[in-house]
Amino acid sequence: xxxxxxxxxxxxxxxxxxxxxxxxxxxxxxxxxxxxxxxxxxxxxxxxxxxxxxxxxxxxxxxxxxxxxxxxxxxxxxxxxxxxxxxxxxxxxxxxxxxxxxxxxxxxxxxxxxxxxxxxxxxxxxxxxxxxxxxxxxxxxxxxxxxxxxxxxxxxxxxxxxxxxxxxxxxxxxxxxxxxxxxxxxxxxxxxxxxxxxxxxxxxxxxxxxxxxxxxxxxxxxxxxxxxxx
Length: 230
What we know:
- Helix content is 15%, strand content 27%.
- The chain is of the alpha+beta class.
- It has a 7-stranded antiparallel beta sheet with strand order 1-2-8-5-10-4-3, covered by helices on one side. Strands 7-6-9 form a 3-stranded antiparallel beta sheet, with no helix packed on it.
- A hairpin with a 4-residue loop joins β1 (16-22) and β2.
- The longest helix has 13 residues, at 73-85.
- The chain is globular.
- The model has no long low-confidence stretch (mean pLDDT 87).
């Protein structure tokens, strides 16, 4: 039996925090660089995990996924909630929706039109999302935030609301050679948060977004991310 050492996910005391406002909606984006104290060891962990292509486990994402409890989720959530709200929040009142280690490859058989469209990470109880980039080498693209060209939507208000239907009943043209480059008449990229090793980004999970690569960079080497909603 292999047990994770207790300090593996310790946060780096020298981590650097940045706060941005993006889009016409002036959405709050938090960026934390040099997040973990032992990022190379976490990067190596990706190679030891067991991943699934089951649609329920990966929740429709175009990635192979390993879902597991995140040992430092309380520290990260407490820090992120405080940064989003500028006040201390009682971590015991929060509900985390699980953490996933994702491996993405361009051209994978699990990439399909439904997994390529811009999406939101909203869940019935969730409010925020985070992505942590764990590629030390082979860095390309990042996370793109998108605006619907016709109706101007950059976010949705809630699940089941008419606002959702106005956005997601629209057709999205997918070219499988470049699935993350959308037709300008359908979607506009207004902000790209670039990948950087050991970088976390956090945002409201109702913002329309998707990953971004050029469709060929990650064919031979995976894109490694840690993702969660809380």
